[in-house]
Design a protein that fits this description.
This protein is mostly helical and 197 residues long. The protein has helices at 2-21, 32-37, 56-80, 84-111, 123-134, 137-165, 169-195. It is elongated and about 45 Å long.
Length: 197
Amino acid sequence: MSRTLLIAGAAVCALSLAACNKKTETEGAATPAEQAMTPDANPAATVPTPSDETAAPTFVEKAAMSDMFEISAAKLALTRASNQQVKKFAQEMIDAHTATTNDLTKAIGESGQSLAPPAALNKDLQDKLDDLTKADAKDFDKAYMDGQVDAHQSALNLLQRYAEDGDVAAIKAFAAATAPKVQKHLDLAKTLRDGLK
């Protein structure tokens, strides 16, 4: 009896393995290429592609929010940071990002586009600011500088992409002129972050 069960079990395993090795296609099933083109069931969860960022409305929204986040985080750092170099960096960020916000507004005006920068941070950036607000005092400087490296890298990528492939000349010129400034901020942020204990 047990020998019969053993043979039957081996036969089932052999058939299962053979079935796994067969390439079967279900009729009507999407091919991998079709699956890649199928939109996500939750469009809000879809990560924007670089091509989205070459359209002026998307670029303006992201660039303005980036400046808004930088200014808000820097104001927080002025009150909470313990390292004087971090505080100095924060003040530089307030000054620099206030200037780039003004430059962006000027570029929009010169472009003739009817674009309005957002008035508030999106949920993702607001959550990052909230997390920074809740950081322990002893961890604040490191948390702020980590966030600055990430934020400036994202901003630099956005600016470079739009400067290269953007769809509105005046706003492209703004992106091209601003990218080197953001690169300097990124380099300084990395240096400060790496110098923190």
